[in-house]
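Blinded run. Sample ID left blank on purpose so nobody reads anything into the name before looking at the predicted structure. Input follows.
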Amino acid sequence: MKKIIIDCDPGMDDSVAIIMASKSPDLDLLAITCVNGNYPVDVTSSNARKILELLGRDDIQVAKGMANPMIRKSPLDPFTHGEDGMANSNLPKPKLPLCSKHAVELLKDLIMANPNEITIVATGPLSNVGMLISQYPETIALIKEIVAISGAFGLNKASFLNATGDTPQSEWNVYVDPEASKVVYESGIPFTAIGLDVATNFNVDLSDKDIEKIKNSDNKEAKFLYNAIQFVGNLGFGAYCAVIDCMAVAYAIDEKLIECEKAHVGIETKDGLTLGMTVRDSRHHFAWEHLPYINMAVDADYEGFLQLLKKLVLR
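Blinded prediction complete.
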């Protein structure tokens, strides 16, 4: 089993990603670390515990992390996940206590105890991971890999038509904390970025038959997903909005589901029109080879992804 930590900002799609990871026989979910992003960290750390209690997984520890980006104020998300941050699912207040450690400390301790074994699956802004690297650079060589929902690389129409940041061509997780993203991208840790080109692709589309099957399931997590799909539909968005972050978990389970290629990518940290952009240098000549060289998602087996999602949610 692959050891993972999910670093997240739930969020309905983060919540479904937690469901997938906790129910996968291929993953050992050691902990969930929460960060400011879709909502303040007090809300995201509460929501993570709510979804674990829904699943009956009180064995997984949850730690609260960064309440703000590394050096700037937190922006307001233009997209709503509902009053509770979970598509107005109205799950009860969690009884599961928070871990006594700050998320950055928990990440450090687990990585040091499991050298070269842990994959960090990051589905929110990279503030916790950026701070980990900055405060504890000795962990850099001990992290197996990072898989993140991160960036928009202009590979297809979905990349910018479905842009989630608050500048025209940015992705939310990078836009919230571009400085932390820059730290992580430049760290040298094996890094896979699943950008909006793949994660919000128009092929991430559950059929009416799929949605009906999810609706008619008796398990609580399927009902949670159905509610999220209905919620985003009422806002005029496709079902993909409810499962964006699930792509990172799917890749952690089965790398063959997502096609990647190496790319030089820089992060724009200047305020203005391009703040938070992930700039890919794909030139044949005069390329800026000093930019971080990352693993960038370019395509996916979307049918395979949706089959895995349905299998794990419904099992």
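Unblinding after everyone has recorded impressions. The beta strands are 2-8, 27-34, 61-64, 118-122, 145-149, 191-194, 258-267, 278-281, 293-300.
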